[in-house]
Specification:
mainly alpha; 400 residues; 53% helix; 6 strands
């Protein structure tokens, strides 16, 4: 995490921000970067990301029902995914026009002209649901073995796996981190085509807000990216990093905290938060070069979180296989599979594309699930995949 630092001094308060190289754009000294993600116009907050909070709440309810075999069904979970037929326990979610499915693989940069792959990815999530509620649920009381779905012990816990040893709830959750949160953040709301669409720059500079709202369209787009990371209701709006590893979030914010807790990557959470604040302040000031620089810092950091956790879980699975504990190994590898799936949605600022190609990621998934899947995957295969991911993202396997 080596970056060139600069300081913005406002009214005696020094606030640090950062850039990705030694040619960092120095912000105008009049740009006000607040201590917290707080922005106002005419004494009214201009920050809004309620739609992102809604989708995070929908996802939480889907995941809480994934292993509830007595009360859940394929139809129920698919209805939750698409927000159809009033599937949620909260009326506000059922009444919302939002859905999880509509924003999966739906970014401007990656999927606006790639509807075929977008539909394939959405079908993958429905496949995770179908497999869980048919193959796994049917065999939930049977002991899993190679080629046969069922349950497997992991210490005092019971894991439910398909015929390849994959936990469908983990595949769904960790893959969704990439396909929904990362894709919408990095490849949609932080992208120039979305931020600068139409008259967004002119309206932002003139302070023209959306009808009936206190924010400009550009401000709101940036906030929507912010909401996919910090929008869980358990995360305090004034100081989200105060609850790193302590919130109820089980998606991206949770794993940002876990990576930040590793001394090899300490500071990545604060750096990401500073980039969000600085970029938002740059929008207010009309400094779009600085805005885009901060977007790239966020892209690099969030992409690295996905890769670090992929390698972490592959190596954890390898260690448990070598210990002969297949229940623990399959749990680790199931999470690793989801993070590998999420690599498709990372964004390398230097190339404008994922750090690894779709073909490479598909190969990794095939290597993990080929034949009897986790029952047969070798430690050597896990090491090779881990090394290739780590090299692509610029860290070592031992660091992860």
């Amino acid at each position: 995490m080596k970056r060139h630092l600069f300081a913005v001094v406002l009214g005696g308060l020094t606030l640090a921000s950062c850039s990705s190289d030694d040619d960092a754009i120095t912000p105008d000294p009049e740009i006000e970067v607040p201590a917290n993600y707080t922005f106002e116009r005419n004494n009214n907050s201009t920050v809004s990301y309620s739609g992102q909070t809604t989708r995070l709440e929908m996802t939480s309810e889907i995941l809480s029902n994934f292993n509830d075999f007595d009360n859940s069904s394929e139809e129920m979970l698919k209805n939750m995914f698409a927000n159809e037929n009033n599937p949620f326990s909260e009326a506000s979610l059922n009444e919302s026009s939002k859905s999880v499915k509509s924003k999966v693989a739906a970014s401007n940069l990656y999927f606006s002209t790639n509807s075929v792959e977008s539909n394939e990815i959405r079908n993958d999530f429905e496949y995770f649901i179908s497999t869980q509620m048919n193959e796994v649920k049917t065999n939930r009381n049977e002991v899993a073995e190679a080629g046969v779905a069922g349950q497997i012990a992991d210490g005092d816990a019971i894991r439910y796996v398909n015929a390849q040893g994959l936990e469908m709830n983990q595949a769904f959750a960790k893959s969704l981190i990439g396909a929904l949160l990362v894709d919408q953040m990095l490849n949609n709301y932080l992208s120039q085509p979305v931020l600068d669409e139409g008259d967004n720059r002119l309206n932002n500079e003139a302070g023209i807000t959306e009808e009936g709202k206190s924010y400009t369209t550009m401000e709101h787009k940036w906030d929507e990216a912010y909401g996919y990371l910090y929008g869980d209701p358990s995360i305090p709006a004034n100081d989200p990093n105060s609850v790193l590893n302590e919130s109820d979030d089980r998606l991206l914010f949770n794993y940002l905290g876990r990576v930040d807790a590793d001394e090899d990557f300490e500071g990545i959470a604060e750096e990401t938060y500073e980039a969000f604040k600085t970029g938002r302040a740059a929008i207010v000031a009309g400094d779009y070069d600085l805005r885009d620089e901060q977007a790239n810092i966020i892209r690099e950091n969030i992409s690295k979180v996905i890769a670090i956790r992929a390698v972490h879980y592959l190596q954890g699975g390898k260690a448990e296989i070598e210990n002969g504990d297949f229940g623990a190994a399959f749990h680790e590898l199931s999470e690793g599979f989801g993070f590998i799936y999420s690599l498709r949605f990372t964004h390398n600022p230097e190339t404008g594309a994922p750090y690894l190609s779709k073909a490479t990621i598909d190969t990794y998934k095939d290597q993990l699930l080929d034949g009897n899947g986790f029952w047969e995957v070798s430690p050597e295969t896990l090491d090779t995949i881990s090394e290739e991911i780590a090299n692509a993202f610029g860290f070592s396997v031992s660091e992860a």
